[in-house]
Amino acid sequence: MKQDLAISVSKLTKRFGAFTAVNEITFDVKQGEIFGFLGANGAGKTTAMRMLCGLSFPTSGEATVAGFDLFRDAEKIKKNIGYMSQRFSLYEDLTIRENIRFYGGIYGLTDQQIKTKTDFMVGQLHLQDQINKLVKSLPLGWKQKLSFSVAMLHQPKIVFLDEPTGGVDPVTRREFWTLIYEAAQNGTTVFVTTHYMDEAEYCDRVSIMVDGRIDALDTPIELKRKFNAPSMAEVFVQLARKAQRGE
Amino acid sequence: MRQFLFFVQKEFYHLLRDPRTMFILFGMPLMQILIFGFALTNEVKNTHIAILDNSKDPVTAEIIQELQASRYFDIVENIRSNSELEPAFQSGKIKLAVIFPPRFQYSLLHENKADVQLIADATDPNVANTLANYATAIILNYQNNMKGQEEFPYTINTEVRMLYNPQLKGSYNFVPGVMAMVLMLVCAMMTSISIVREKELGTMEIILVSPIIPIRVIIAKMVPYFLLSSVNIASILFLSVFILDVPIQGNLVLLVSECLLFTITVLALGLLISSVTDSQQIAMLISLMGLFLPTIMLSGFMFPIENMPLPLRTISNIVPAKWFYYIVKTVMIKGLGFSYVWKETLILMGMTIFFLVVSIRKFKIRLE
Amino acid sequence: MSVSVKVNGVSKSFTTGKVEVKALQNISFEVSKGEVFGLIGPDGAGKTTLFRILTTLMIANKGEASVDGFDVVKQYKKIRNRVGYMPGRFSLYQDLTVEENLSFFATLFNTSLEKNYDLVKSIYQQIEPFKKRRAGALSGGMKQKLALSCALIHRPSVLFLDEPTTGVDAVSRKEFWELLRQLQTHGITIIVSTPYMDEASLCDRVALMQQGKIMEINSPKGITENFKKPLWAMRSSAMYQLMLELRALNEVETCYPFGQYHHVVFKGNPVSEDDVRRMIGNISQREIEVRRIPATIEDCFMELMHQ
Asked: A touches which chains (3+ CB pairs under 8 A)?
């Protein structure tokens, strides 16, 4: 494995019975890169992402994530990655402070570290007045930003974001991407899925999955040139139209 | 009507396509009956017994011989006085004592009748009952053999005394108990869950927005469970009669009608639960805590209500299963007629109407 | 043109615990017959609450509303006979097949698939090959089409679609909107909500919603024309850096990333490229592409949010 690769995947495959959800995908993600992981519904994105996070055991292939082998060191990988999905992020019935404490505890941070982190995070997100409020009382946009920060709490090498901006208002959506940029500038690798095609343009490189395979992988500029398309939305539509299978 | 039938059909699809539901519906009753059944038919072999023979005559000697010869009993002690009985039971050395009064043979031959007393340790009522039955059978057998030789009928009365649990709560009474439990489970829990599931799924929104009348939704939800409960009632009765030898002493039509009445009571309860909850877990929790537990604890099935403190006795009156349990016990086990249970039936009917009215009124035609 | 849906001063609030959430605040609008009307806004804007009030599932605290001339509270039964509703979540029976779902909903409305086949045809044909498959095993796009077929099966006069395209990929979204356009030719009024701003341009008129309020109601064109400030698109080879530097400039009012460009509004509203280039003269980046562009709905939405 090369030192500057955050993720290195070779012919990674996942089968469920006769169904091949992910079919020999091969790609590398560089350290500090913002990697967009796109695909139509049912193309196998979620399955692939679960494998990379160590939540699902691959059928065959090779992969290293954050320098650890996916087959042998899945538990070590979990210590070095952060994960955030739109579905479950924070405990609604805990306060902001309690949530941060809890996740800090899970990742083995000391009390001092948790305190420092809490102060920093709350300052960054301007949540000083809300810190002792229940998370459920926060607007969705704030919850999303907060859960991103919580996913970054233990300074993971890689952060996986599964549709982080779904349903969020346009201003918050951009504020969220500012957070992503900042994380990348600080050397964290960002692996992100989205249905907003304009967000695909913000990524350093984008892969597009169709029917379990990666059909295209390049910088947005190159992809648009190759497919002779004015926008990433157009590139996506051209590729996804070929899809044969459903979810 | 077509609308309604389709709704019922749809409910059946849901039921038949979910193996877990099918298991709860049909596996549980079977399992419960069999588990309780096996606990009951625990075979009795070489049980330690004691003899207190105050007569010591040829007849008592013969009876003792018969008892000793049977494979059920093992005479471990010959006691000389009543005072030795209690310590023997308390130490657990014996489960049964056979006591012959003085001048046993004399009474039998001159008065044509004599008494034998059987004292059993009834801490385990099922075992105690079985032991007493076996001993009585052996003694009756002896008496019948004697009858053949003489011209006057001799009668040996066996007087059975149960120590520690004189009412023998538990024995055959588990069949009505299981019936109440199964109906609670099937009707209340499953109906409430099936309605709440539609709320969770979001399909309730579409159904509410459609022109179907809410009362039809309710009835359509109840019909499949009512039918399945009938199947369950039939299978429980079948199992108890043919596998467990618990006969139906009373009127079958009366028994079945009472069961169906109780089914409607619990369906209404399930409906009530579904109208106050929005998640399947909570519906399940309320069904278990609010219905299932009281059914087990306060219906008289596991623990005799007579021995409970007053507050619990009072609370037990609002547990529908208590009345149902009493009715089934009276009709099925004791074999008594409607005149003995009309009051309880009326109470159950009153409860049913109350629950139905409340749950239909509470059924929301809107989301809140 | 006759009015199909009328909403007048509707407010609705919920209390969860001690907190009172104002889901809708004094909402008023009218939708004409046969119109495609979009409610555009993020989660928490109040779109679902509004749908539930219009489909008689909820009662407003204040104000009144009517659908096809029937009051949503007093004449709710009439409305339930004539509207089609597709809730935000996938609300079909996953354990029933496509066919069973359709016939169930058809009988629910006392009709049959055959009776309204002309209306459902174009959609149903796409899912017909899977009619024996359980709904739970369909792909996202297929589920969407099945749900739409079920909502249409009784030939509703008004169709309410709550976020039909949320979580659906770009291709399925496109196909879905093509279907809606076809339905419009049957004279059905369609009220649709979406968090995707780019879908606003596919509606006849839209209401931009945020936190229980309607910020603006207009045709998509009318909304973008109301964006009076000159808007500039910029890009360079280091976009994040460019954004930071632009935001640091005093002359810049707002700068937001928009896909491959940043959309920038300057104070003083410069109209010539020369003026703009002068304003960004101190930026370290070379070779910045600059051009004036018309505003999109999203630009307008964000502008309205700041007011």
From this structure: C
